Amino acid sequence: MNSVIPIRAEFGKGCTDVKPLMERGQREVFCGLTGIIWLHRKIQDAFFLVVGSRTCAHLIQSAAGVMIFAEPRFGTAIIDERDLAGLADVNVELDRVVNQLLARRPEIKLLFLVGSCPSEVIKLDLSRAASRLSAQHSPAVRVLNYSGSGIETTFTQGEDACLASMVPDMPSSPDKAEQELLIVGTLADVVEDQFVRILNHMGIERVRFFPPRRAQDQVSIGPNTRLLLAQPFLGETARVMQARGASLLSAPFPLGIEGTTAWLQSAASSFGVAQDRFQAALAAPVARATASLARAKLHLEGKSIFFFPDSQLEIPLARFLSRELGMKLLEVGTPYLHRQHMAVELAMLPEGTFLSEGQDVEKQLDRCRALHPDMVVCGLGLANPLESEGMITKWAIELVFTPIQGFDQAGDLAELFTRPLLRRMRLAA
Predict the structure, then answer these.
(1) What's the pLDDT tens digit per position in 160-194?
(2) Which domains does the chain show, CATH number per domain?
């Protein structure tokens, strides 16, 4: 077991010792299949085949439909009533669908078989299916599997499961290889490019990203690898990478000026970058971000906000909104609190912040209504009902789809919260 990452003294104690309210009841959150929506855009030669029901297909198509401008790199192998009743050989049908797919789409180099609630219910062994199909189609296509089932995963855990499934296939770094920074978590290409420029400016040249933009561009891993998490929901991915010898850097997540600075400082300290060179690399992007946040602060300062649990981004977002934009945190709910990965974030939260982990949606709705916050961050299923009650909401899912990491995106992130307030003001005028 990994030891808890020490808290940086400059951030104080914050909510380090806070025991969150633990809730285990009905949830209002998407399943892990939703991660396919951004993963299929990131890994450009991969395909995600959900082994599930028509409901699974409708979920992904509905969520991703407005974002698709070309043939998507995901689909669903439908499990029907005959499969559920044991009247058909699901493996035979799956092989047929995969063979048909790969014949029609020769550009696919990595195929994910994604488990769903129906495949879990009938105990379909997708790991064995993936091994069989990978042997059949190798070396042209690698076939991996992971679970996006709502029984096992929530929303962003789908990405964690996907990336963790890729780690065993990563080549090992050569002995005595140079130290390399590996940034883990799906980021928009433009954000990756910005981080590379800043890191190169401060003298860190060996920078890789995981997942890669193309499956064929495999990233090596070993004792020379320093991990820097770009997303807070990658607990299993970090664990299996550390088991391969990589070391995990302690840092908050790169949201806002403060979070991005501390995140980059963690990399700079690990690679021995001089402080003056670090400051020089950050001067221009920090100045741009400061100007953009000043405008947003005029609308957000003093406003109260309530977070329903959804993506595991809640604590970093709350830290950013409270410390840099002056918002008041009424409740910060998160589906799962990974104390090791959130150690620095917890230390940066205002003392006394009310935290909840898990969800009992009816009880949380009661607390939200009693507090009547200026803004509520929640899933799509809760947004419309709360809007009908007069509350201003922000869709949590938009915060995952949108590039929000880094200095140049700080203003865009703040605008995601100012926009609902301004819209309500215009409607009231």
Answers:
(1) 999 999 999 999 998 888 999 999 999 999 999 99
(2) 9-27+289-428 (3.40.50.1980), 32-153 (3.40.50.1980), 180-277 (3.40.50.1980)
